[in-house]
What does this fold into?
Amino acid sequence: MRSLPLPLALIARLTPVAVLACAGWALTSGPAAPTAAEHLPTRHAPTEQASAPSSTAESKTYATAPSPCSSVPVATIKSLVPGARTAGREIPSTDTQLRRTCSWNALAGYDYRWLDVSFEISGSDQEAKKEYEQRVTEKSGGGAVPGLGDTGYSIVNLSTEDKQQTREGVVLARVSNALVIVTYNGSDFETKKAPSTDEINKGAIKAAKAAVAALQGGRSG
It folds into this structure.
């Protein structure tokens, strides 16, 4: 439900007309000949510069997004979203290699639960870090989740519409150049109350830990 990229052009310029001109002048003036020879090696300088950028290219740990619908164990889905189809439903994406999301939702009696798990792949660790920090800033007020990927964060908010409460938890995790985003929310349509902050937060973190483990384990469903 939530939604997430450079070639280098190297131009070696040689000036054959100038070189030929120097060579011709050397033949007629004699003593200047060594000077022309001394300048010839400078033609190789662009080639040396051309090889430098390749050493700075960043390698990507993750090239494609794994299957989100197989990233959370069936037992976890059953406990977090009672009554939901455990297979989940993958949300259409414009680029499934870079962004994939799976959704589970169900109404059990009067209790409603919704869970989304997303994977987003960036071009480098630095890009993923920048995106992670931006999202954390946008969702300020939460806290760090120790031991979740390279860095993890969670936040829970309560909203009310027509006297019906809904509590939603969001967990973000960065693993190298990949982001894992989990959204988990719930409502009780009988009491009009929302589940506790603790229940939603722990549920979202549990799903996020499973998704991170699936990403690191290379599971693709």
Remarks:
- The first strand starts at residue 89 and ends at 91.
- The longest helix spans residues 197-217.
- Confidence is low (pLDDT under 50) at residues 1-56.
